[in-house]
Amino acid sequence: xxxxxxxxxxxxxxxxxxxxxxxxxxxxxxxxxxxxxxxxxxxxxxxxxxxxxxxxxxxxxxxxxxxxxxxxxxxxxxxxxxxxxxxxxxxxxxxxxxxxxxxxxxxxx
Length: 109
Hints:
This protein is 70% helix and 0% strand. The chain is built from 4 helices and no strands. It is found in: Nucleus.
């Protein structure tokens, strides 16, 4: 990344100011700040700070409501999966019964 005059304390470049405002408006600055503060407040610093940031950056925007909604969705999908597995088992049993009946519909002598 090019670190021009803006980073050395000289006047801000209009493009950089526009980009900074864009990042602030999008919440990027707040998210990064939150993760970095969290890293700073760790009693024992992780061996890989970059990995810490990657792991925690995704969790910054999630609220407890998001987590609860996702947990409920997992519960619902597991119930649906169990119901469909039971239905699948029943249908396989029916299919096996029909396959075992002779084709002419009569009984074998």
